[in-house]
Specification:
With 490 residues, this protein is α/β, with parallel strands linked by helices. It has 18 helices and 16 strands. It has helices at 30-44, 59-62, 79-89, 101-107, 109-118, 163-170, 183-195, 209-215, 221-230, 237-240, 274-284, 297-302, 328-341, 388-394, 426-434, 440-452, 457-467, 473-487, and strands spanning 51-55, 70-73, 94-100, 123-128, 131-132, 138-139, 174-179, 200-205, 232-234, 261-268, 316-323, 345-352, 360-368, 380-385, 398-407, 420-424. The longest helix is centred in the first third of the chain and has 15 residues, at 30-44. The structure holds iron/sulfur cluster.
């Protein structure tokens, strides 16, 4: 990261001016936070393409719509999950999550504690205005005891979350609290949070004059900022270096609408972040190179393609479908994991009915050497159908030069429409090999791998052995190899 000299900032360079005017109410603290974020980025000298903003839902999350960077405005409470995937896929990016007290501590509270626990290298700014602003002033997890909201007209009786204490307890390696009343200190905190390697959590006390201020007779924006100032105790740098920070949050009961609080860096520790740990694991156990001679030509041949070993292959879309309880989803997962283990890109999407057994079930696996834009496909190159219902529902999606595998004892195939049809005794083979039809999914997996070479056999076997479906690696491999044998050239 380069640190630019604190040159004069022209905010317009960082804003989507075509999105103006913004929707924030006059005096809303979120605008102050937005400017502080832009100043921090400016100070760090980061280029637009080096930073991505991810937000959830709420007034705070809305500010992401105004910044001229790559932005993801996601679903309620889920920005940390989107951000985690993004960061793991693109570790060089600075990923800033903007969330609110409702988005990040109520519906998204679970994601927050696990992102902190995993120490994902993200900068999470939680804008805490102690109320749900966008939806009309309902009480939030941070509404202080005694404070009024639209659903607590007599004052909240529940204790409020201390967001910093929560993040610290969950394992965040950087925890800080800033406030809109002290915007320049806020710049510093954002810079420090962005420079920290690991999960950095910055709670920003913001103001909602429209609801929190109005319900609690706190005045408009300026009066609320003044109230913040008079209740803050700034934690100095010396304290921040200590493991134990006395008075984090406040040990005193926070009755009323304006509790005492501490601000500054409350906790900082160095510990490996999730991405670094995954990279180290991959280095310690190198993945087998993709498409060894003899392993890559088959899928293209099966599809009528021409890609040779060592060249980039386009996406292969495989759908496995059957009934709940047949292990369809697991078979798809094994296939996707094996492809990834072999150095290719893969996605796995699953769907099943509410029944634990017997309902429809499907898994969709897309494997490619290039980028996979979307984890679902309208058309498929290979279909495995273990039930008549699955065949009837999905056969029309199969490409004319595709590969169809059905359990011949379940699915009478009437016409093939040009594609290669392999009617195989899948459940019967599992019964013969294992003494039970449980394992038909692995037989089917063996057949589709043998026919398409979507993943190297060796990689699939390693994944199967590691996951031990059914509790026995040996039996699982027996079933998989029996499926391979069904389609082996005679
Ligand atoms: S409702 Fe509150 S939080 Fe939302 S924009 Fe208005 S003042 Fe800001």
């Amino acid at each position: 990261m380069t640190t630019a000299a604190a040159s004069q900032i022209d905010y317009r360079e960082y804003l989507r001016l075509d999105m103006m005017p913004h929707i924030l109410c006059p005096g809303c603290g979120h605008g102050i936070v937005l400017k502080a974020i832009l100043r921090a980025i400016h100070r760090l000298g980061l280029r637009r393409e080096e930073v991505v903003f991810v937000s959830g839902i709420g007034c705070s999350s809305r500010i992401v719509g105004y910044v001229d960077f790559c932005t993801l405005h996601t679903t309620h409470g889920r920005p940390l999950t989107f951000a985690t995937g993004l960061k793991l896929a693109r570790p060089a990016l600075h990923v800033i999550v903007i969330t609110g007290d409702g988005d990040g501590l109520a519906i998204g509270g679970n994601h927050l504690i696990h992102a902190a626990r995993r120490n994902v290298d993200l900068t999470c700014l939680l804008l805490n205005n102690a109320i749900y602003g966008m939806t009309g002033g309902q009480g939030a997890p941070t509404t202080p005891e005694g404070a009024r909201s639209s659903i607590t007209p007599g004052g909240a009786i529940e204790p409020a979350f201390d967001a910093c204490r929560l993040a610290l307890g969950a394992g965040a390696s950087f925890v800080a609290r800033g406030l809109t009343a002290q915007p320049l200190q806020l710049d510093d905190l954002i810079v420090q949070a962005m420079e920290h390697k690991g999960f950095s959590f910055l709670e920003v006390l913001s103001d909602c004059p429209e609801f929190f201020g109005r319900y609690n007779d706190l005045g408009r924006g300026p009066e609320m900022l003044q109230a913040q100032r008079s209740h803050v105790e700034w934690i100095g740098a010396a304290l921040a270096e200590k493991q134990y920070v006395p008075g984090l949050g406040s040990d005193a009961p926070s009755h009323g609408a304006a509790p005492a609080f501490n601000a500054g860096v409350l906790h900082r520790e160095a510990r490996p972040d999730l991405g670094a740990q995954l990279a180290q694991r991959a280095k310690a156990a190198p993945i087998a190179p993709a498409r060894r001679p003899g392993l890559a030509a088959a899928p293209e041949a099966a599809r009528g393609g021409t890609a040779a070993s060592g060249t980039a292959a386009g996406p292969m879309r495989i759908r496995l479908a059957g009934a709940g309880g047949q292990g369809i989803v697991l078979a798809g997962l094994l296939l996707a994991e094996a492809a990834v283990a072999a150095g290719r890109n893969a996605t796995h999407a699953q769907a099943y009915g509410p029944e634990s057994r017997g309902g429809a079930s499907k898994a969709e696996v897309i494997i490619s050497d290039g980028e996979i834009e979307f984890p679902c496909a309208d058309r498929v190159d290979a279909l495995v159908a273990l039930t008549r219902e699955a065949y009837d529902r999905y056969v029309s999606l199969l490409e004319p030069d595709g590969t169809l595998v059905v359990d011949r004892d379940q699915v009478p195939v009437e016409s093939t429409n040009g594609f290669a049809c392999h009617a195989l005794p899948i459940a019967a083979t599992a019964q013969q090999a294992l003494g039970t039809t449980m394992g038909a999914n692995l037989v089917a997996l063996g057949a589709i791998v043998g026919l398409t070479a979507a993943a190297p056999v060796e990689a699939v076997e390693r994944v199967v052995a590691a996951r031990r479906p059914g509790g026995s690696a040996e039996r699982a491999l027996t079933a998989f190899r029996a499926g391979l044998a069904l389609v082996a050239p005679s």
